[in-house]
Amino acid sequence: MPELEGQTSINDFIPAPTPVEVREPTDAEIAAFFAEQDDAGEDPEQLLPSTLGDAVLVGHYEDGSPEWHDARFKGIGGSEIASILGINNFRSRYILWMEKAGIIPRNTDENPLFEWGHRLEPVIIQKFAEAHPEYAVLPGASWRNKDRPYQLANPDGRLLNRETGECEILEIKTSMTGVGWGPGPSDIPAKYVAQVRWYLDTFGWHSAWICVLIGLGDYREYRIYADPAKTIEMRDAAAGFTYSLQQNIAPPIDGGEDTYTYLRERNLSIDPKAKVTLDTEIVELVATSKANLAHAEAEMLRAKGHLLAHMGTAKTALDADGKVIAARQAKGEGAVPFVVVK
Length: 342
Prior knowledge:
By secondary structure, the chain is an alpha+beta fold.
């Protein structure tokens, strides 16, 4: 695939691992240092050591700035590991590879949801700090693992337990609807769990907090812990992805909506006289997908039938935990109701 003029590849930025011979301070030394800074009223923006745990400092950049985007491009960040694992609904593995390889421009456009999520971060961080005086809340910044230079972390904040000296990650999210955010401690969108565990592995830390503001009044906190098995899975996936970039081996086309949109827009003209003969593999894929879709649609109708039979005249159906599963709606007075699965 030809590179676009002016585009660069991630391979231009992956340096060879450089040993870092620095003695790590003890937990007591860290706690004492930050206690002194608190007493002195130091600006927390200055509390950025060059190394922290297993990570080295890349820089402290404003979210969405050109420097922030450049730092994220030069490795694999938390949201990108979710793409590589196939659990990021906003960016597919295929499109991420095309961007990292320099074949298509990086998408740095920021929508209003990103803007307002960023604007609300300080408010949510302040709420967490007020609820947890046991922690010193410190700037997040941009970091790189010292042994795996492609592994990046851009946490929204870092936490220092004032009593134990243990360091943790603080990640802030916003959601308009709360979809994917349940009442249980593990009811979190999988892509955010992967993101935070990627950060934990970057530093070599063990625990994190995710705080989310749903709508304008539903604030929730979730505890996330490192998972050795998941860590190995993420490292292997990231190493394979990086190798594929170095060898210029594109991943297979996936089912991401952004992948489909890119392939649609790649050829805007239609030659009425042109025909192509498909490989057997593609023909079989189309046939299998059609059959699976027909089966899935039939199963959904069966599920909706059960819902209608059990709901009667009720508008809403809930599970045992109170989560909305479905709702009956009508397109006008006197119209026949239908059921919508949430």
